[in-house]
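Sat 14:20. Reprocessing the chain from the morning session after the first attempt stalled halfway. Input below, unchanged.
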Amino acid sequence: MDPTVIIFGLANFVVFAADTELQYNPEASTGFGFRRKLKTWVPRANVFLQNMGAFVLLLSLVVRLLSAPAHPWWKSYRALAPLVALLLNLYAWIDIIAVVPTLMDLAYKRDAFYNIQFICLLRLVEMAVISPSSTG
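Finished this time. Tokens:
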């Protein structure tokens, strides 16, 4: 699940940066030899990625909570394991903070809040610490 969250985090960052550029220059275009105007694809991509990113983050959070009773760190808390995992896991809090503006956008039915789902990229730290080094 973590690689999916990272991919959506990166995609959200790219679209966030393009949307910011579009706010300052409505006639801005993409690079990389495409020369397509940002206004033709960024607003739709922003909405799509925000909604799908929120879905992925919430699904990841639910899976983490459901699996907490089996996790070595949290299983000693038995029935309270999901609650303790939610309260004490920094990455769960980052996911919640990242998804709140999107949920507020959905509640107000307008794009009034910044898409900050890219802060879930802090999960790369967790992945780097857990993954063994290939250099020996």
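The chain has a mean pLDDT of 80.
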